[in-house]
Amino acid sequence: MKYLNQILASILALPYVVFGANYFLNFIPMPPPTTDPAGIYSGLLMSSGFMIVVKIMEIVFGAMIAANYKRALALILISPISVNILMFEVFIAKQPAIGILLVLLNAILIFRYKEKYMSIVS
């Protein structure tokens, strides 16, 4: 049980750091843009510069989670990104995938660090 938080945190942080870095370094080939609603929405986000901010936050918060540096804070800050990924997959792409895992891992880790959040809800 002692290492469970670190294992779960590493699994959660890995996709954020890898895919966040991939946005800037392009080491994983991306499929060409499509004309379906998911492709149009993604193209809009990328052309507006919004994704640059999101990807920087993914890298920073993912690294904070992996390094156990203010992990409880990083879990709260990355949770809207996890939920947004899930909502995109469910409502726009109509193909739930990694978003389910991200939200689930985020929720489990927030629950495991619940003592850090008690002062907020009391």
Give a topology summary:
Elements: H1 4-25, H2 37-48, H3 50-67, H4 71-92, H5 98-112, H6 114-121
Helix pairs in contact: 1-3, 1-5, 3-4, 4-5
The best one-word shape is globular
In terms of DSSP E residues, the strand content is under 5%
Element string (H = helix, E = strand): HHHHHH
Helix count equals 6
Which short descriptors sum up this protein?
mainly alpha; globular; 122 residues; single chain
Description:
The chain is mainly alpha-helical and 122 residues long. It has helices at residues 4-25, 37-48, 50-67, 71-92, 98-112, 114-121. Helix 3 (50-67) packs across helix 4 and helix 4 runs antiparallel to helix 5 (98-112). It is globular, with a radius of gyration of 15 Å. The chain starts with a helix and ends with a helix. The relative contact order is 0.14. The model has no long low-confidence stretch (mean pLDDT 94).
Brief summary of the model shown:
The chain is an all-alpha fold. Helices cover 80% and strands 0% of the residues. It has one domain (4-25, 35-114).
